[in-house]
Specification:
This protein has 257 residues and is α+β, with helices and mostly antiparallel strands. The chain has helices at residues 2-29, 53-77, 146-155, 179-183, and strands spanning 117-119, 124-127, 133-135, 143-144, 215-222, 225-233, 239-243, 248-249, 253-254. Strands 1-2-3-9 form a four-stranded antiparallel beta sheet, with no helix packed on it. Strands 5-6-7 form a three-stranded antiparallel beta sheet, with helices on one face. It has a two-stranded antiparallel sheet with strand order 4-8. The two termini are 44 Å apart.
Length: 257
Amino acid sequence: MRKGKRTLLVVAMITAFIAAGLFLPALARAGQLEPPPGAVDESGNPIPTMHTLDELYNKLEELSSKLTAVEAKVDALCSPDSDGDGMPDPLDNCLMTANPDQADSDADGYGDPCDRFSDLNNGTVRDNDTGLIWLKNANCFGRKNWADAMADAAGLAHGSCGLTDGSVAGDWDLPTKEEWPAFVDKSYSWPALCNAAGTGKWSEGDAFTGVQSDTYWSSTEKVDETDRAWRVYMDSGGVDNGPKSNDYYVWPVRSGN
């Protein structure tokens, strides 16, 4: 199929050049360069304006460029479809993960399933690696001790912190000790977080806002010392524990269900 379409395009281009050689000189001689205003021929028809050979050859070059672009498009359409989503690889915005409608909600050129994070445009961001939903604003509550941080997260709901997701109090929590390492990206520091596409370091609004290169609470208490809880250092991505009386940042998360 691919070979046949390429052959047709080549034939079309050759035909165009042959036509140019046969007819362009004649077309160039037809009409007048600058006919007088309102001039007509013996049949009463307006006298056409003659085009120079340069103009006609320029037009032919433009046509040749368009045919080349069509040929490239045909090549793409005849290419493999590695993820079986109906979109050939050269045109697919998510090469190895099916994305049939080519959804790209953040318009970054990477399909939603291939993004590390997807901004859901309702005050939340989905982590496509874990399925968890994070509050887009990573600094809605400021610094709190552990008990207050837990209460703030549990009370979060639609209408607060920029949320328009329909969530209710009780849907949100602090991340667990295990969820933090799955979230951070130690390839980067200050903060240890990647951008939405997963191709570079986080910057403001991509996809989160207000991220602090500082310490955030987890919901997990230290088993053998109940006056301590686990925390993450967002400057490096490291996790350890500290006294619950300390004040750290609050970044709520909820399930994707």
